[in-house]
Prior knowledge:
TolA/TonB C-terminal domain, three-stranded antiparallel sheet, two-stranded antiparallel sheet, 4 helices, 21% strand
Amino acid sequence: MKTYFSIFVLAMTVIVWGCNSxxxxxxxxxxxxxxxxxxxxxEELAARKAKLRETREMKxxxxxxxxxxxxxxxxxxxxxSGKVVYYKGEVDPVFAGGEQAMHKFLQDNLQYPESAQTxxxxxxxxxxxxxxxxxxxxxxxxxxTTWAEVDSTxxxxxxxxxxxxxxxxxxxxxxxxxxIAYSIPITFELEP
Length: 192
């Protein structure tokens, strides 16, 4: 009887040991699969971010070229109220505190719409506006986006945040402050 019991215990040990090694192997396979999926997702995210940057930079360059062409054709235009607006000043308007301060303002005040986050929508909204002779931002309008999928909530948020910007340092022409057209890209990117 002791012999049968010893054989039974030995057999159970071998079975349990075999099951555990299979279980460990399966856990290792699962971990390897999870790591592989993480790598694929990271690569997809990096590719998407690179495409977003590339598209934003291409559109920004196209817009700069178009603005330069407009300025060559005519230095000014009249806005809806009949005021003269320059395409380019001798000294362009500057956000009070400089570009770094503007980025901080946007970072602190821009709110990524929840509906766009849920849908995974990303992109850049180009916002055009006028910085008047007193430095006030007016006539804010979104004129272009980098992706057709950029939904209206992103456009509305970009317009809202530019509309509430504090006064800029006005641009000048002939040494006097003047109204100058300006444009900035506002990019919405989801965090990984």
